[in-house]
Write a structure and sequence with these properties.
This protein is of the alpha/beta class. It has one domain: Rossmann fold (3-Layer(aba) Sandwich). It is about 40% helix and about 20% strand. The strands form 2 sheets. It has an 8-stranded mixed sheet with strand order 1-2-4-3-7-8-9-10, sandwiched between helices. A two-stranded antiparallel ribbon has the order 5-6. Strand 5 and strand 6 form a beta hairpin. The radius of gyration is 22 Å and the shape is globular. The N and C termini lie far apart (about 70 Å).
Length: about 290
């Protein structure tokens, strides 16, 4: 009786195994490291590779550099913003083109001594690292098209400000910039004074003020304005976000300089719920521009 039972069980398990559909190819998310001579450290990055990346070895892709916020790391956009799920859904529906999405690590817990920020500052030359080491490494390691028309930068909060300033300083590199709840500037009145030269929050604050996205536009001459007009700009901020005024100031400056841009104020605050929803708009917007 037992032998018959086990024989039947083995037969059923065999049928079940052979009846399973083959595992379908999927997009991939990988976290890797790059050794930086500029920062004298290893830095992580997380990268999304679309479905066809592993199937078509000759195909090259547009790229999005997606920047995280303060106190976060490269993993946040994928663990809390669900980049893979959003990209897979939009690409499958035809609302977004296949693209590579990469998030470098520009942070960590600042209150535990980690550096944060996308600009060069004493002890943390991150902007130099990004443009002289990180971007060249990514675009030579992965199958990136590698021209302005197929390159974009986006980010949230600190990363939204970083994305905006990167686009302002390097309009020859980026087709589009999408800023979410962006740290465009910090007014002097809002900057807490610090007596410690190693206070990383104070250093970050000063770097944001020195790289004010708002002042970059207000002080731009005609030649610079012309280059800014070559970029597709999108500013996306919630109506309850504490950074809304800074985003309004940037869009007002761009209107005065006649720099075409999209500006959206939606219901929401400085939260992952807002940024997750913004990612859908972001990938659709960038895809429309990549197609051009």
């Amino acid at each position: 009786m037992k032998r018959a039972f086990f024989s039947l069980l083995l037969m059923l398990l065999t049928i079940f195994c052979f009846a399973q559909p083959p595992r379908m190819p999927q997009s991939k998310v990988e976290t890797k490291t790059i050794q930086s001579n500029v920062l004298n450290a290893e830095r992580e990055y997380t990268i999304y590779l679309p479905l066809s990346y592993g199937q078509d070895p000759d195909k090259k892709y547009p790229i999005l550099y997606l920047l995280h916020g303060m106190n976060d790391t490269n993993r946040g956009w994928y663990e809390r913003g669900h980049v893979k799920d959003v990209a897979d859904q939009l690409i499958a529906s035809g609302e977004a083109v296949e693209m590579i999405i990469v998030t470098p690590n520009a942070g960590g817990n600042i209150y535990e001594g980690a550096w944060n920020g996308y600009f060069d500052m004493p002890g943390w030359a991150y902007e130099t690292f990004f443009f002289t080491e990180f971007q060249p490494y990514i675009e030579s390691t992965y199958r990136v098209i590698g021209n302005k028309e197929n390159r974009a930068v986006a980010g949230l909060s600190m990363g939204g400000g970083g994305a905006t300033v990167y686009g302002q300083k390097h309009p020859e590199l980026f087709n589009s910039v999408y800023a979410m709840s962006a740290l465009m500037d910090i007014p002097q009145r809002d900057a807490a004074p610090s007596q410690r030269p190693d206070d990383k929050m104070a250093i970050l604050t000063k770097s944001v003020q020195e790289n004010s996205a708002v002042r970059f536009v207000t002080e731009a001459d005609e030649e610079r304005i012309k280059t800014l007009r070559s970029v597709n700009w999108f500013v996306d901020c919630g109506d309850d976000d504490f950074l809304l005024d800074r985003n309004i100031e940037l869009t007002q400056a761009m209107r005065e300089k006649q720099i075409r841009h999209e500006f959206r104020v939606r219901d929401g605050g400085h939260t992952w719920e807002y940024w997750h929803s913004a990612l859908y708009n972001c990938l659709r917007y960038l895809s429309r521009n990549f197609r051009k």
